[in-house]
Amino acid sequence: MDRDALHDRIRRLLFASPALARAFSRGDFRSVFRGRGIEFDSLREYTLDDDARLMDFRATVRLGRPFVRTFREDRSLTVFLLIDVSASMDQGSGELSKLDMAVLVSSLVAYAAQFRGLPVGCLLFAGKVLGHLAPRRGKAHALAVAEAAAAVAEGRRPGAGFERGSGGRHGGAGSGGGGLAGAGPDRSGSDLAGALKAASLALKRRSLVLLLSDFRSAHWARPLGELARLHDLVAVRIGDRSDTELPRAGAFHTVDPETGRTAWLPLGSRTFRTRWRERGEAERRDCLELCSDCRVPVLEIDSADDPARRLLEFFERRRKT
């Protein structure tokens, strides 16, 4: 999708941001982010509109009538996006690529955070950390976060405030270097483990961290678990129909965007299509199992999905669990 069409879609989807902002806080952050986003405020008498799960049974028994706990939002909560802009994210069998979808999701989350008055930042990575935007409040900063991934994907330099990452493979988010020098960043490879480690170093206070990636990387389970112990981490796995389904006719040479290796794809072979589907399903299953082992919830979004609807459904489910 070209830049103008993508920006037009972002503008249309932003109407969902107030609804997302309400989803963030509905039932308070306690139910959405496992209790780390709010602070206890007071007790008051129960009304029919209250969530029965907020009832304080000790106070109810002691005073002889139902009471519920009230909470106030912890305005220090930071929203931080880890966005995979590696070459494999260019994959897409329809109107949008995986990277287009990552841009849309990050835009919605950034603006939802801005509606709640929460600071939002992001870190972009491919084969190394390319750079980051430090968390800040405000509409202008939310716009910068929304456009950062799209700019890097197009070989452009993101707006003011974007700090380049290190040229080293595991460079920290705030270190100097030439990550975006020249005609554009090198987007080959996906160092997911390095990005998780950089986020652990960059985030000094508890945060809601959304990791947007197709998870085509290796050795990321341990740093994922380490980051999840310090922050509320959500893995947003972005997929595409072509991960498991291929056309039933034809054949062509292709190049792996991550490794540069070429391959011949005999699409007319039923055996080949079956193996392709099994490989894609195995990748998905392994990702879900590793995230489950680290107790990291996973939101799966296909490149053909409505990102606003999927985000709203996800946070509504978390509120109810």
Can you put this structure into words, describing what you see?
- The protein is an alpha/beta fold.
- It folds into two domains: 266 residues, 3-Layer(aba) Sandwich (Rossmann fold), CATH 3.40.50.410; 36 residues, no CATH class.
- Helices cover 39% and strands 21% of the residues.
- The strands form three sheets. It has a seven-stranded mixed β-sheet with strand order 6-5-4-3-7-8-11, sandwiched between helices. It has a two-stranded antiparallel ribbon with strand order 1-2. The protein has a two-stranded antiparallel sheet with strand order 9-10.
- It is globular.
- The two termini are 37 Å apart.
- About 9% of the residues have low confidence.
